[in-house]
Design a protein that fits this description.
There is one protein chain. This protein has about 210 residues and is α/β, with parallel strands linked by helices. The protein is built from six helices and seven strands; from the N terminus they run E-H-E-H-H-E-H-E-E-E-H-E-H. It has helices spanning about 15-30, 50-55, 65-85, 100-110, 155-165, 180-205; strands at about 5-10, 35-40, 85-90, 115-120, 120-125, 130-135, 170-175. The strands form two sheets. The chain has a five-stranded parallel β-sheet, with helices on both faces. The chain has a two-stranded antiparallel sheet with strand order 4-5. The chain is globular.
């Protein structure tokens, strides 16, 4: 059975566009027989790094209760992504980048010797053999045009996933959401079509 880790990261709860689109993908994947593990980073964020959590995540033996708790959080998040065949990430654009809650999740799973390693040839990702669907929601238009250089969201996600060894990544963008009802409806319809196509291809590969 295909295992899916679905992440949402918006601070807007039920009003989240990226969250709704992740739910759409999850419903289709579940209908295809996949096992779903969900983590709502907006509602239940992992804490930002501190001196204690940084020490624990970097591999030092936990020296106090705070470090033990930080290691346990990181271990749980790492176990989820290691167990997943597919990762679905909902990422709203906040101030041209990803949400701080999604960044904190990456901070907890990016661990030398666990999800990546340093070699003589440079860093090597250890989370190989997985496929990812990244669903981005954006008020403006950033995939092309004059605002493209302002996009710090997709380049970061592509870089960090690749660094961890996840290179089979499909990006679905719901853009121009603040450009009026027609533009919003068109963006959502296009994103839903792209999600259905990805799920269909993914299900066929898993069969």
């Amino acid at each position: 059975m295909t295992s899916v880790l679905a992440l949402t990261s918006a601070s807007t709860g039920q009003a989240s566009v990226s969250g709704a689109l992740v739910a759409e993908a999850v419903a289709q994947l579940r209908a295809s027989g996949a096992k779903i593990v969900s983590r709502d980073l907006g509602a239940n964020p992992l804490p930002h790094l501190t001196e204690d959590s940084t020490a624990a995540i970097r591999g030092a033996e936990p020296a106090n209760d705070a470090q033990k708790a930080a290691r346990a959080l990181s271990d749980a998040a790492v176990a989820e992504i290691k167990a997943a065949d597919l990762i679905v990430i909902g990422s709203p654009m906040y101030n041209f980048g990803i949400s701080s809650t999604l960044k904190s999740w990456f901070d907890h799973i990016a661990r030398a010797g666990v999800t990546f390693s340093y070699t003589e040839a440079g860093p090597k990702g250890l989370l190989t053999g997985k496929r990812a669907l990244v669903i981005e929601s954006r008020a403006g238009m950033y995939s092309e045009g004059p605002a493209k250089p302002m996009d710090s969201q997709e380049p970061y996600l592509r870089t960090v996933l690749g660094f961890l060894g996840i290179t089979d990544v499909t990006f679905v963008r719901a853009e121009k959401l603040a450009f009026g009802p027609e533009a919003r409806d068109a963006a959502l319809a296009g994103a839903k079509t792209a999600i259905a196509a990805w799920v269909g291809t993914t299900a066929a590969k898993a069969a």
